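G., the chain you wanted modeled:
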Amino acid sequence: MNAPDLTKLDLGDAAFTVDAFHRGRFHVVQPRNEGHRSGIDAMLLASLVTSERAISVADLGSGAGAAGLAVASRLAQARILLIEKFPVMADYARRSIGLPENAFLADRVKVVEADVTLMGKARVAAGLEDEVHDHVIMNPPFNHAGDRKTPDNLKAEAHALTEGLFEAWLKTAGAIMKPGGQLSLIARPQSIADILVACGRRFGGIEITPVHPRPDEDAIRILVTGVKGSKARLLFRSPLVVHGADGHSFSPQVDDLNNGRCAYHRRGKTVDRSKNA
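Predicted structure as tokens:
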């Protein structure tokens, strides 16, 4: 698919939207009717990153960049590498960075067009260098073969959960992350076995938080964090419930996470090995 010429972007064009996050602190250019559109999943993922020091964060499969930009919005010393293989989505990310509303973070965010499943020299040549990032975040594709198909080919490929996906993505995460760095991801609960297998000996201290739409409904997402090289045991945390008592508005904790007012801190420690530490 050819990337649109977003240098001539008409913000009134029905094909695009410019969406505010963190109550208007930053904005994201997104396709209206094709590809992946970011929302609360991206904001919850971003909330898993926290540090009081200068850090480097890689966002694998970043799409238009909402999660990475959310980290940059909340953490003034965070530098973000957005990694996206689809040129059209990478272009949305570049235009998002270039918005006047995002000037305060623009010099700390970079886009690389690359397939996150690349290995070895090909991965490094694409701009994904070994052991340089303190945090790696990801919202991998999650649709199984039996799920209802979308007529949007870009969205279908971006959401397709293929065999061995977590192994490939977590292998890259482990390769580009510093020892002691933190992995953070959001996924469907049905993927938990594949995630744990893929973590293997790469990541320990795994913490899993189920995310429920409402108190009486099953979890629809899980938040997973781990530390490269850790030997700590697995921890299941108390659930996050998205909606409050009325069933519609966000619960206070989720509202704070969604709007960048706080981070979702790990119970265990993450070793900070940033260059500026």
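Helices lie at 40-47, 66-74, 87-98, 120-125, 153-159, 165-176, 192-199, 252-258.

Shout if anything looks off.
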